[in-house]
Structure formats: C-alpha cells, structure tokens
Amino acid sequence: MRYGICNLSIVPLRLEASDASEMVSQVLFGEDFKVLEKQKKWSKIQLSFDGYEGYIDNKQYLEIDEETFDKLSNSKHHYSSEIIDFVTTKKNHLSTIAIGSRLPFYKDEHFTIGAQDFYYDGTIYSEKLAKKEILQKAFQFLNTPYLWGGKTPFGIDCSGFTQLVYKLCGYSLLRDAKDQATQGEVLSFIEEAEPGDLAFFDNDEGIITHVGIIMDNYNIIHAHGKVRIDTLDHSGIYNVDTKLHTHKLRVIKKII
Description:
Elements: E1 2-5, E2 10-14, E3 23-28, E4 32-38, E5 42-47, E6 53-57, E7 62-64, H1 66-74, E8 79-80, E9 84-88, E10 94-98, E11 110-113, E12 116-119, E13 124-125, H2 133-139, E14 151-152, E15 155-156, H3 158-168, H4 177-180, E16 185-187, E17 198-202, E18 208-214, E19 219-224, E20 226-232, E21 236-239, E22 244-254
Antiparallel strand pairs: 1-4, 1-7, 2-3, 4-5, 5-6, 8-13, 9-10, 11-12, 14-15, 16-22, 17-18, 17-22, 18-19, 19-20, 20-21, 21-22
C-alpha cells in the first residue's frame, strides 16, 4: 500500500482519471490518504478523514511512508482557522491555505509535511467545541458560492458545507448528504431540533440529495446557489426570495 499527503492548498478530487472529469470533492492542504492505485499520471486515493475516494493528479501530492501515515492517523488534528491564510518554510516560501486545512504534527507554531518544515502563526482549531459554536462557524461562510464537490469558502456544496463546519468544531461527518444522513440520532419533529442539528432532503426518487444546518425560529443555513438562510417547515425549505419550496424534508438528525 502507498500513502500520500496534500502539500498544495486546494486540489480537485475527480470521479475518473482525467482533467475533464467531474470534480467530486477536494483535497485540502495537509490531508492524508491511502493510494489505492497509481497510474502514470493519476492516483486513485481514499481520504483518511472521511473515506472518500477519487482520482488526484500525481503532481499534486507528496508520497509518505507507512510509518508517517500511521503517526498521522494517531496524532491530534490541528486545523487552520482563518478563511484564507498562509504558511511559510524556513526559506520564507509562502503557501496559501484555506480554513480547515490540517497542520500535521503541529507544535509551537511549527508543523511538518514529509521532510518539509512549515511555520504557521495563526489561531488553530483542535478541540471539540460546544454545540452552540456550530452556527457561529457556519455564519462565516454566508454568501459562499455553490460549487459541486467544493469544500472551501471559495466554493462549496451542501454536504461540503456541513462537513467543514462540523470539522472546525471537532466532529467528523461523512462527505455526501446521503451518507451523513446515516449518522446521528433521528428526531421525529422539527420542534425537537436544536440549533446545530442537521436536516436532510430527498428527491422524487426518495434519494437524499441535500443537507442544511438548523437554526433558531425555524430557519436553516444551507448551500443552494450560495450559502444562504431560508425558512424550514414541515414540508421542507421555503426560499425567502422566490417564495417557493425548494427542497422536500426527509429526516432531521441530531449529531451532537
């Protein structure tokens, strides 16, 4: 088995081994993974954080050995906290990073990726936060444009949004909405929900395709065109701009 780590800011994870293939997710700086299959130009990988699989360009990651991979798996997670920031090397070379990037083996403002030492002087997230913090983190992403497969403040999809917000608060969600819906405890009524719980929505075939974070007063924050706030009722999401229901409610889950 081979292993790798992302040493660039935001790398596309594709459905197939082609630059023209659909982007199904992204690999952020500091994320590690198993290399399931290595071709001449592409590698099929499985991300450690959520088990998600896809293809990444071989030029856009660094191979690591099994010992380093195991140490990463057993070490504490430290994440960058600024919407956009940068890290520096000893030679003062800069690399930009997006919020939620992992800083492997972080200690005293230093961390390492492979044999390269980096310096980061920003605030980090590394602890489980109270449930009330979920919405505070979510509000940072208001008006972020929707991007299929995206999970950064420069473009994000519905499940990438919920996953990133929960990650910043110290909790792990799977990548896709239908998979996130398998986590947590089912709530029977909207009235039972608390701010920070998740609401899931299905299509006409009964497949869960959308997720958002419940707020106070029957509101929901979710990624639909952009990260926005709409009204939630027993039917689903009511768009405050178009005055139409856009998503059909399927289930509410309590994760924390």
